[in-house]
Structures are given as C-alpha cells and as structure tokens.
Amino acid sequence: MLTVRSIPEKRQPSEDLDAPVRNATALALLDATESLLAEGGTRALSARAIAERAGVRKALVFYYWPSTDALFEEVLGRYYRRHADALTAALSTEGDVRARLHRMIDAYLDFMETHHAYARVVQEQIATSGPHVELVRGHLIEVLAITTRALEGVLPKTGSLAMRHFHLSLSALVINYFTYGPVLGRGWWGKEPLGERGLDERRVHVHWVIDAWLDALARE
Questions:
Q1: Which residues contact 175 (CB under 8 A, 6 or more apart)?
Q2: pTM, to two decimals
Q3: Could you tell me the domains of the chain?
Q4: How confident is the model over 4-14, as pLDDT tens digits?
Q5: Do 126 and 119 form a contact (C-beta atoms < 8 A)?
C-alpha cells in the first residue's frame, strides 16, 4: 500500500481568511471586484463599476487602494490564501496517499465551485503575460511545494513520474472543466456543466481518474 509522511505544517490556516483586509467597506469592494471578474474578466473592472457593485462611493476605491490594479492584486492574493489553506488542511490529516489525495481533490473542487472566476483570472494573466503573472508563478510554486511535501518518498524527484508532472496534470484535471464548462453549455453537455448535477458528475469522474493514476503508480 502506498503511504506518505505527514505533511509539515507550513502555517496554521487563518481563522479569518481575509485578515489583511478587515474593514467592512474594503471587504465589500473586494467581493464586488471578484463578482465583476467572474462575469467579465479584467475588462469588466473599473473604479465606477466596482463602487456601484459594492454600493459605495467611487472615491472609496482609491481610499483603500491606490489603483484598481492594486485591488485586483489583493483579490488574487485572497484567492491564493484560500486555495493554499484548503489544500494544506486536506493534506495535513492522517491516512495513506489515496485517502489524502481524495481529500485534497475534494478541497480543490470545493474551492473551484465557490470561486468560478479563479480559473479565468489566472489563465488570463498567464495568456497575456499580465502584470500579476509573477504573483501567479509564486502561488504555483507554493502549491507545488505543499503537494511535494505530502508525497515525499512516493513519487520520484525527476523523470516522467515526478511530482511536477503529477501536479500539473492534477491542476488541469480540475481547472480545465471550469474553463471550458461555460463554453460547452447545456446544449452540448446534456446538462448545465456548472450546475449541481454537472458538478457532482465531474467530481465522480475526477476521483475515478485519481484512483486510476494511483493504481498505475502502484504497478510501477
């Protein structure tokens, strides 16, 4: 049976995932920015649109942040704090590699289901070499470190079965569904891809793929 060592605690998950920004108005602006990103990507962002969505005066956007670009960076950072905390919590529990990876994939899917804009925002930065691509790179390295520590001694450090390949394949398995799902729509898919039935079906499929990978790894 494949087993893994307990992952070292990098940091305790914050009781308040929005700890860097505690003011209610600032939080409303962050939520408004996230909502607009989910609807139209970065093109939908303007100080006026953010303020109107948050129900505050436009001047307050610049009271809390020097620019909408800085506000966008905080939203991206908030995504990453939540993402890293969810994966760390899932992988810090006891159990063999199969149990931990299933918990991790559930945490990943839960995150994506409640943060639909995440895939669009990150992929837009990468595709356009956006101003926050280094923030994206830093988070990817952080998450890779989390999963690498959890699977230490299970996967080789180099070669086609190295953790870096496993991590990218796992990310694609989850994120691509939320990228292409809205494009495919009910007409092609047979059900709403991001509706409850579509998401439940996808989760079962992802768990099946994880088991197939682990079975193949055990044979290796």
A1: 112, 119, 122, 123
A2: 0.78
A3: 19-65 (1.10.10.60), 77-219 (1.10.357.10)
A4: 333 323 323 33
A5: no
